[in-house]
Amino acid sequence: MDTIFYIATFILGTIIGSFLNVVIFRYNTGKTVGGRSMCLTCSKTLKWNHLIPVFSYLFLLGKCAYCKAKISIQYPIIEVLTGLAFLLILQRVYLFPIAVIYFAVFSILLVIAVYDYRHKIIPDGLVFAFIGLSFLRIVAEYFLGGGAFTYDFVSGLLIALFFATLWWVSDGRWMGFGDAKLALGIGWLLPFCQNLSAIMLSFFVGSIVGLFLMFVAKINSRRKGIPFYFDKEIPFAPFLIFATFVSFVFNFDVLGLIMGGVIVCFG
Known about the structure:
By secondary structure, the protein is mainly α.
């Protein structure tokens, strides 16, 4: 029974992932997320069998059934990632009704991550929705007797202030103000120790990726015989969101590891 339930959860995740792709491609384009799906190249309406998560992409060999234009690999990647994320969230939360809330939260975060990667901007509408859901989390835990409202509220503000300070000091060169708004939602979503863990992990992973991209750029400049120059803008939201998901799902606590397993997590 558990196996069937987990398979059903994964399938649900891929279906939601298919919808998230629609949101990613249509958000801020003037198009609604409703209506029939169509090919972005020939604009022909797709049939139901063209919209089966993952499988349609494989059966169609990654091409439109009508014009044979290449379909973005983003579609199956987002579908599979959402399915896997739903499975991990369910194992972390156990209770399906509560897991649904986190399904919604991390679905929004996944859209923000991909949108920021594609457009180098964090949409206000999505990040404000995330902040609202995170705030409801600390309110709900407070009234259910499982959280300290003031501590969680202030810790979220402090984390957002840290990113806002980086934005202000660097005049937006190091960090966008959208990252500060995103950090506020993260600060209210997770306990304080997991917030710190997510921030540390995001900077670590971001640094590794940044150094790798610089290394590749330097190799390419040598190969082409041109001076090395690296000006690629790397969006930070994907790293923050990845680190937040890891910290949440695996209860990642850097401070606890440093202090030899001493419980330092509050909230």
